[in-house]
Amino acid sequence: MALFRKFFLKKTPDRLLEISERVYVFDCCFAAEAMGEDEYRDYLSGIVAQLQDYFPDASFMVSNFWSGDKRSRISDILSEYDMTVMDYPQQYEGCPLLQLEMIHHFLKSCENWLSVEGQQNMLLMHCERGGWPVLAFMLAGLLLYRKTYTGEHKTLEMVYKQARRDFIQQFLKLNPQSSHLRYLHYVTRHGSGSEWPPVSRPLILDSVVLHTVPRFDSEGGCRPYLRIHGQDSSPGNKSAKVLFETPRTKKHLQRHGQAEVSVKISASCRVQGDVVLECIHIGEKLDREETMFRVMFNTAFIQSNVLGLNRDDIDAAWNVNNQFPRDFRAEVLNSPASMPFFNFLFCLSPVHYEI
């Protein structure tokens, strides 16, 4: 198997980690501190020189994950060596994942690049400081998409092990692996014979029901508050925004304790495509926030209009202790939304990314 041949190949350029055949990651992605401009330029120049020496007939494409809105630093430097750099974001509304259509764009671009007959094309993966979690997800997704490896959980775990856990935790308050696994399950459905990614259907996100109350205050209860991010429903607008927030009033922010059987938090907002849902604990004076859990999902894969969640399905703090008991259970309840005709036509239109 081609995975992690770093330890078996004699010729592996320094400062690169081989993930699978012709797929490498820059080792600066594992550094806690960013390099200075001159040091970074020398770092990249040294790697390029090795690549040109080891693989004189190869062509290289770089996938870069970063947080800027202009041309990235690595794009400026590697353009001098005629290397193509594809810049992608390194998070979506606070979650280290990308929208499903952008994930699809990445997977197809990489697959097409690596599959060109008669050429030795190579893929290099890079991220800016703090971008390792989304890079790890994309690597796992690519390995599964190309059937280099099987098993979503096993593949994600193996990629995550390339970085120390404390290194990842210093950039993220919440462990994103539950949402990563959910989207890896989406990725592996591409081989089922149906269209992928499927057209996302609009839903009304009615409410979130907590069947077990998390323990986030001194008395073992919480004051839950919802914040929902998603795609703007305006025709032709692909940007994301906050679609719903629980009103910050004592009427809407009631405290709930362990004695309650279930708690229903109303939302009633229209969602379509990729959604980030945050369930937050609000302090007694309504001025302090603490994220209890977060989930990211895509409406195209919601079965029976319900997204069921247990403790392993939520992005929560790395060490939640006893805040979420093992039998924790929650549900995101949805109902079908009517779709205006012009939105229906828009959903059927192909999407092109200029990256």
CATH-level-4 superfamily name of the largest domain: Protein tyrosine phosphatase superfamily
| Count of all domains | 2
CATH topology heading of the largest domain: Protein-Tyrosine Phosphatase, Chain A
* Helix run count: 8
Q: What is the CATH class designation of the largest domain?
A: Alpha Beta
CATH architecture classification name of the largest domain: Alpha-Beta Complex
Structural class: alpha+beta
Q: Beta-strand level of the residues, as a percent range? A: 25-35%
Low-confidence stretches: 3-10, 340-355
- Radius of gyration equals 22 Å
Strands ordered across the widest β-sheet = 1-2-5-3-4
Helix content class: 10-25%
| DSSP E strands, number | 13
How many angstroms does the end-to-end distance come to?
32 Å
The averaged pLDDT comes out at 89
Secondary-structure element pattern, one letter each:
EEHEHEHEHHHHEEEEEEEEH
Please give the oligomerization state of what you see.
single chain
Main β-sheet, in a few words?
A: 5 strands, mixed
